[in-house]
Amino acid sequence: MMAISLRETSRANFLISFRDVFKFYSFLGIHSRRHKLFFLIALLPVFMAVIFKSSQIIYGQPRFSGLFIYSNMIMMFFLQFLILLLALFFGTSICREEIEGKTLPYIVTRPINKIAFILGKYVAYTLLVSLMVVFSLTLSFVIMNVNRLGDLGIYKVLVRDGGVLLLGIWCYAAFFTFLGVILKKAIFFGLIFSFGWENVIQYFPGKTQKLAIVHYLKSLLPPLSQEGFPFLLFRLEPTPPGEAVLILLGLMILFLALSCGLYSWKEFIIDSQ
Amino acid sequence: MTVVVQTEKLSKYYGNVLGLSDVSVSIEPGVVGLLGPNGAGKSTFLKLITGQLKPSLGRILVFGQRVWNNPVIYHQIGYCPEVDTFFEDLTGWQFLTQMLRLHHFSPQAAAKQAEEMLDFLHLSQDKDRLIRSYSRGMRQRLKIAQAIAHDPRLIILDEPLNGLDPLGRRKVIRLIRQMGEAGKTVIVSSHVLPEIEAMTKRIILIHQGKVFAQGNIHYIRELIDTHPHIISIKCDRVRELAAALVKEKEVIKVFFTPDPHEVQLETRQRDVFFERLQQLILDLHLEVEAITSPDDNLQAVFDYLIGER
Fold first, then answer.
1. Per-domain residue ranges of chain A
2. What ipTM was reported for this prediction?
């Protein structure tokens, strides 16, 4: 009886902590100046779309359709640059923000369960990044396909791409949360991972390419068209979509579980100066 | 009386560096001053009490419970950190209400409590300004506000008077005393003895990670009063003053410095000497530029006390 009661109290404390942490960091996320800058960065594809579309309109008779440019260039920019960058900065900040900003004492002296802290902040920040990306993706898509908006078939592409990017954001953010918990220079190593490892390994032949997260994300998309890009000799050897989704979700859960465990166990020392 | 904080052979190491060594203390309700020079281990001790750090050795109990990774107990603890950092993109009002929300206050209760606290610490007028635009004193008061707003039973204030103007200091000292009188346990750290003296008579002396002495402040005062103090006087006719000083029985040594307008002396009876010095200045019609006590700081006192033991 006593054990059940203690478990219930502990579960209630966890849920309340999660709720309060989520609300706090959602609030902070909206008010942060740094996050406003990231929102502008997230709008880069929209500027790209405006430029592409303007040039199509100005020069007329485009060689490639709007949907083709969207799928092969803008979507790739999202997949291979933007979501990595945003997930890196937001993911690593889940733990490092309080340490580097020396605001950790305000958090760790509150009656907040440590696992609830990591999960609450992860959900708040990842949701914020997801909203930024979905907004930017939708706007870019609409701009590039402004002459085909009545064609309902094209929206399937938007939904599929949005889903892949969201899956990517949540998986990468979990990995970068883990990096933030274990490493002091998480951003540095995160940059090496994002723009070194991920961008190189995915082009390796055979099973090696499966060591990159982006491989599973690309497996959910149709193969990249090489029309107009004959110099591209790399070939994706895709993982079946169902398996790819399961692996991405599995990685997300694994990195979050590791982050929560380590954060609960580890002590973080703040320099008083 | 109930013991609120109890430590037994508590030690903390940062790698090979000693933070705190073999500290055993029992703290009861009321105000307790934690006194020691910079780097003595005061902040480490306070961080251990608040569960921010894990003890390397020994044990720490707060309200009879372990404190590391025990968030349930944090409802009862309020902590004002030494570092001057905030969530700078928030206003004072937003910061305080959000901190209360993290204590699981409802939005209404948080707003009511924050309103009262900001008013109490004279921050109401500036509550809607961004914290980044606050003065040092305002930031310090806001830090104290977040530590006490949720009405904790144990309040831990790390150097709370830093950056406050004299009026602000007086108010905070009064507040600390009131909290102690109200039955709360308040642990205040400082490296300035008169600050602690103004708040409490119960002190813990900490130096090089060890508790050096604990008890009534009169004990340390007595020790300090026999500590030979060096006093420096800058005036127009130093040699004339020096001649007069050597005749005074409170003066042990008189010596000159490279500055031609400065004379230094050593005395064991500082208070008696200062009374006598006023008379000497008047008698000799001296134009005094400055009177300072170069070793009148806690580090010098500790160095002396350690030498004595």
1. 11-50+88-265
2. 0.84
